[in-house]
Amino acid sequence: MNGTAIITGAASERGIGRALAERLAGAGWHLGLLDIDPEVKEVAAALAAAHGVSAAGAVADIADPDAVDAAVSVFEADLPPVTALVNIAGVSSPVPLVDADLATWERVLRINATGTFVTCKRVVPGLVERGYGRVVNLGSTAMQNGGGTYSKSTYAASKGAIEGLSRALALEVAPHRVTVNVVAPATIDTDIMGGRITEERAPAFLAQLPVGRLGTPREVAALVEFLIGEEAGYITGATYNINGGIRIG
Ligand SMILES: NC(=O)c1ccc[n+]([C@@H]2O[C@H](COP(=O)([O-])OP(=O)(O)OC[C@H]3O[C@@H](n4cnc5c(N)ncnc54)[C@H](O)[C@@H]3O)[C@@H](O)[C@H]2O)c1
Question: 132, 150, 155, 240: which is the annotated catalytic residue?
Fold first, then answer.
């Protein structure tokens, strides 16, 4: 019997979080969906109706501890015990450092890095207390490669913070049967890279992709589903690349 998975960033129609929510609901997971976009409530209601699982949607900025606390408190009161946290919410930034102002840096770091800290801080103590849990945080090839096809230094730095946090947290909670891993994608066909990757934009992305195509949100969701499963208990502190070969190793 599956528990509840909390997924941040599950509202975006073509995004990785929505694809994961759909996949997990189909597999019988209960869902606490958290997003700054109010659409998240309809997403949760539709998945509950379609799959017969319990699901709740809550509107919150992941970097706001009070808002996250309120949302998670509702999940804890209304849903089966939380056994997984998947931090997918995030923003990109195509601005190179020479053009970036402090506000850009602070916004991207606040949402991506602080947001991941805030949700982990709120949810992980409960996993530790119950002696079981899975955490997956979204990194990016941009951190490993010195920027991506679209996103530049500020975004790469924010994902570096997420990886460092994840590895350290993995060690801190390992004795409590809680695992923490990173999934690092590149060039998944969503709208985060300045909108849809249209036919005109596609060649610039495809030129860097050895597999010759963009990745899909469903492919990322399948990997996350494995990592939050019971059988993945011996995997922790790891980074799983899902990048079409844009980076090897
Ligand atoms: N698409 C890619 O190629 C790619 C590559 C590497 C990493 N990623 C990472 O995957 C994750 C999901 O990306 P996506 O492509 O599905 O993007 P997306 O834009 O489709 O989805 C992002 C979601 O995060 C939510 N969000 C943004 N700021 C928020 C905040 N402050 N509080 C709560 N929710 C907030 C948005 O409303 C949206 O639902 C991100 O962390 C991104 O950095 C994506």
Answer: 155
Q: Quick check: 1 pLDDT over 60?
A: no
Alpha carbons 175 and 69: distance in angstroms, whole number:
25
Q: Which residues does residue 218 pair with via DSSP β-bridges, in sequence order?
A: none
Decide whether any atom of ligand 1 lies within 6 Å of the 118 Cβ: no
Q: How many independent structural domains does the chain possess?
A: 1
By most ligand atoms within 8 Å of CB, the mutation choice from 16, 144, 163 for ligand 1 is: 16
Angle at 67 between CA 236 and CA 163, to 5 degrees: 25
pLDDT, residue 138, reads: 98
Q: What predicted TM-score, i.e. pTM, was given to this entire model?
A: 0.98
Cβ–ligand 1 contact at 64 (below 6 Å): no
Look at strands 82-87 and 55-59 and give their pairing: unpaired
Indicate which CATH number applies to the domain containing 118. 3.40.50.720
Tell me how far apart the alpha carbons of residues 181 and 90 are, in angstroms, rounded to a whole number: 17
59-103 pLDDT, tens digit per residue, is: 999 999 999 999 999 999 999 999 999 999 999 999 999 999 999
Question: Is 3's pLDDT higher than 60?
Answer: yes
Q: What is the pLDDT of residues 106-150, one digit of tens each?
A: 999 999 999 999 999 999 999 999 999 999 999 999 999 999 999
Q: Determine the Cα–Cα distance for residues 80 and 126; give it in Å rounded to an integer.
A: 13
Task: Print the domain residue range for 64.
Answer: 4-242
Q: How far is the CA of 175 from the centre of ligand 1 (A)?
A: 31
Report if residue 145 sits inside a domain.
yes
Ligand 1 in reach of 182 Cβ (< 6 A): no
